[in-house]
Amino acid sequence: MSVIEQPNSQNLHEATFEKLRSLLVEGKIAPGSKLNERELAESLNVSRTPIREAIRRLAAEGLVELIANRGAIAVQLSLEDVLNTFDVIADLEGFSGELAAKNISDATLSELEALQYEMMASYARRDLSSYYKLNLRIHHLINQAANNSVLSKLFTQVNARIEALRFRSNQDGVKWEKAVEEHQEMLDALKARDSVRMRRIMIQHVRNKRDVVAHLLKSESTLETTKS
């Protein structure tokens, strides 16, 4: 792991949080694993104070569970929890997309176009880490363009539970290509201010990811059963 070097205390804490968050989302800290403060502090070359703060923030986001007598554990959802969460997110993103198509400004559209261009470059390089970060920024920007603070807060809270799974859903080349196509469709619908089309695209986009993740988790469960 790379060393975090930040002279400013606030920047150090933020950098530690972002690095730890990436490790969780990208599966470098496996679901169900205990987060050892001492080991994390050593690997990131920071004191345990920013590690503790990062863990508290990640627990608030839903990426980490704080369990009595066990400490901080990387969240591990059951298949039922995953499917239920994706279904909720599909409706939230559908409503978000519908409102965004009605309310989005020309400036935000231009920003989305720029992010889409960067994301396509990451896709061309098969740089999944960079692609996912840009992808998430696009989804958050669409959510913000809906101009509904309650919806935005709900989306952020619920989506955090399945971020690691959304990241993994792009590891299938064919499914990844389909997701990229859907993002272009989103941009086209927003440009046309077509709220009905945008809602439909967003819901289908999330449901497609749900199906990919469900297949992935079922395959892993079958593999584990076979091994045992």
Which features would summarize this protein structure in a list?
single chain; 228 residues; mainly alpha; Arc Repressor Mutant, subunit A; Four Helix Bundle (Hemerythrin (Met), subunit A); 2 domains
Write the layout of secondary structure elements.
Elements: H1 9-25, H2 37-44, H3 48-61, E1 64-67, E2 71-74, H4 79-103, H5 106-124, H6 128-145, H7 149-160, H8 163-168, H9 173-191, H10 195-227
Helix pairs in contact: 1-3, 2-3, 4-6, 4-7, 4-9, 4-10, 5-6, 5-9, 9-10
Q: In CATH, what is the homologous superfamily of the largest domain?
A: GntR ligand-binding domain-like
Order of helices and strands: HHHEEHHHHHHH
* Helical/strand content category: mainly alpha
CATH topology of the largest domain: Four Helix Bundle (Hemerythrin (Met), subunit A)
Task: Quickly name the level 1 CATH class of the largest domain.
Answer: Mainly Alpha
- Which percent range fits the helix content? over 70%
Low-confidence regions:
1-6
Question: Gyration radius, to the nearest Å?
Answer: 18 Å
Q: How many domains, as an integer?
A: 2
Shape: globular
Q: Taking strands numbered 1, 2, ... along the chain, how are they ordered across the largest sheet?
A: 1-2
Which CATH-level-2 architecture of the largest domain? Up-down Bundle
Main sheet attributes: strand count, strand direction, barrel closure:
2 strands, antiparallel
Q: Give the rounded overall mean pLDDT.
A: 88
Q: How many DSSP H or I helices?
A: 10
Amino- and carboxy-terminal Cα gap: 32 Å
**Tally of extended strands?**
2
Strand content: under 5%
